[in-house]
Amino acid sequence: MEMILNENDLVVGASFENGTIQDYIDENKTYGLIRIEDSTANWFLFNKQESDDDLQELYKNILKQEHFIQDDFGEEIVIFNKQGNKSFDDFSKKIDGYLNDEMGNIF
């Protein structure tokens, strides 16, 4: 996975063999976009105790539609607006890999 940096050298996404991932695509910086081949989905990290009000509201709305949530010890990966043939599990694995690579780059 090749990290994408912004003008301040902060990681804002990554590209990989068959797709890309971005941390934020909306102006409020609440959710990102992942693309694998011809499939896409939106995603964000959520923590019930620590997420701000915008994210809390988005989370409540997502629960009313098709979604996938992977709970990693209180930090949830939330995937929604899936389009295409890739499964939620495929998206989840790529997001996990990205987050693990991103954490590895910090340390």
What keyword list fits this structure?
107 residues, alpha+beta, seven-stranded antiparallel sheet, 2 helices, 27% helix, 39% strand
Which SSEs are present, and which pair or pack?
Layout: E1 2-5, E2 11-16, E3 19-22, E4 32-36, E5 39-46, H1 53-62, E6 67-72, E7 75-83, H2 88-106
Antiparallel strand pairs: 1-2, 2-3, 3-4, 4-5, 5-7, 6-7
Structural account:
- The protein has 107 residues and is α+β, with helices and mostly antiparallel strands.
- It has 2 helices and 7 strands.
- The protein has one domain (2-105).
- It has helices at 53-62, 88-106, and strands at residues 2-5, 11-16, 19-22, 32-36, 39-46, 67-72, 75-83.
- Strands 1-2-3-4-5-7-6 form a 7-stranded antiparallel beta sheet, sandwiched between helices.
- Strand 6 and strand 7 (75-83) form a beta hairpin.
- The two termini are 17 Å apart.
